Each structure stands twice: as structure tokens, then as C-alpha cells.
Amino acid sequence: MGQGVHTKMIQVVSRELRMPLSSIHLRGTSTETIPNTNASGGSVVADLNGLAVKDACQTLLKRLKPIISKNPKGTWKDWAQAAFNESISLSATGYFRGYESNIN
């Protein structure tokens, strides 16, 4: 039985970036994309990954702030196109490690 982590991460992105759930696509992680993920034991994976996703969203919002301020009523598609035109990266990773680990 899964913990619904993918659904929870999509919900975090939707809330942080204020975009519809249907516009968010999630790809599973691997060491090719995130080499130092936290262990998923003890039901903390949603907390750790959720805070990492939130961190990545905050990075994106900081990069997009000048774009959004120029066109505050724009859509995400408008902002993404403007960011592309201005060579602003729309790729971000987040990391959170706020819990003590018992792994030695």
C-alpha cells in the first residue's frame, strides 16, 4: 500500500505555485536526478519531500518574480514563455533535511 506521496507532492506544487493540479506532472525520482534522497521509512517521506518540493517552488517563484510583476494577470503558460525568451531556467531542485537521522 502506498502513502499517496505523488498526490501529496502535486498538491504542494499546486498550492505553492498557485496553479491547477491538472497542469502539474510528476516523474518519479532516481539517483540520476536526485543523488542524495532521504530514506522513506517511518512515514516521513511526505514531510521531507513536501518541504523539498516547496523549496524548489520558492526557487522558481524567485526567478519568475520579474516576469510575473511585468504581467501579473498572465497565465503560467505566458510566464513560462517569457522566462524561456529571457533564458530564465524553469528547472529547480529542492532539498530538506530537518529531521535527525538514526542511520549511522
UniProtKB/TrEMBL annotation:
Residues 1-97 form the Aldehyde oxidase/xanthine dehydrogenase second molybdopterin binding domain. SUPFAM superfamilies: Molybdenum cofactor-binding domain. Pfam families: MoCoBD_2. InterPro entries: Ald_Oxase/xanthine_DH-like, AldOxase/xan_DH_MoCoBD2, AldOxase/xan_DH_Mopterin-bd_sf. Coiled coil: none annotated. It comes from the Eukaryota. This is Aldehyde oxidase 1-like isoform X3. It comes from Bos indicus (Zebu).
